[in-house]
Amino acid sequence: FVTAGSSALTKPALPVIDRYKVPLVSREYSDELLTMKSRFFFMPMPKITVNARAMADAFIRIGKEKNQPVNRVAVLCQDGSFGEMASDTFGKYFPSKGVNVVANQIYPTGKVADFSDTISKFKALNADALVCSVTPYEAALIMRAVKAVNFNPLGIAFSCTCIDTADYANLAKDGDFAFGVPVFSIEAIGDRIKGAVPFLKEFYSKVTSEAERKLCTEKAVLECVIIMGIAIHALERAKSYDPVAIRDAMAKLDLQTGDRYIYWPDGVKFDETGYNIRAQTIGGQYQGLKLKIMFPESLMTPGVHAVWPMPKWTERAASDGGGSRMAACQCGANI
Length: 335
Description:
The chain is an alpha/beta fold. Helix content is 40%, strand content 14%. The strands form two sheets. It has a seven-stranded mixed beta sheet. The protein has a three-stranded parallel beta sheet with strand order 1-2-3. Residues 321-335 have low confidence and may be disordered.
């Protein structure tokens, strides 16, 4: 049994899958699900805390490399276990690295139509970076507010937030230079993840309509493929349709990147909680409306560096002569 990913739906399902002994593989990122000690739940993708710390480390590293370090960060997250876990992680991790968190705000998901007041507060606090864990739709609203109040931090990042959606793409150049994690791009990564590009090219050759293409971002496709691949590998090794045998085979999987359907670093091996201890996240930045990989180093293109600080809004307006828009895609929102 596999799910596309929604912590609000997955959480109440865990007692049920344990009761009926049905293994579940999910695209989820929520750490909370791992604390529920389900024997039949498996999470192959990087969890919230991994993504948040990786993004924080990237901002700290990039700031030092550019001699414009992050000193005062503002955090903005949606409510619920997903956003609150990210808020807690950022709120503790940045100070442990010597960075002051000047604001850490949680808002009611779907209830805020305009974030201008919130962003104005961050601006007044002299925040030099903004990190968010929000829904894709609200990521676009936040970027509109950042522009509206002329907030010019060194960098803005969205953690565990899909910024390859139609909502975000509609920002066009106003969405440029934002950082995101996790991300994926054939153009940016090329063949540095074994098997990913051939699989994606074959997959998209069978997508016949623009509407279908908008539903299938590269990252979303690879995430869905890995959870399907885990189920297939477990079925084959169990040599049985007995769900307990499949669960036991799944728990013992030891798969490498490039194995059939496993096209994400660094393969699959589950711990006792059902978390993939090899899960590695990928972070990037939009530059010229195209995604550039910022970490891990093994996936970065030589010569590609972060744009830091982000261009000020007045500078963008002066140089904006139109141009192409980001490709419009859609995937599941975090709820």
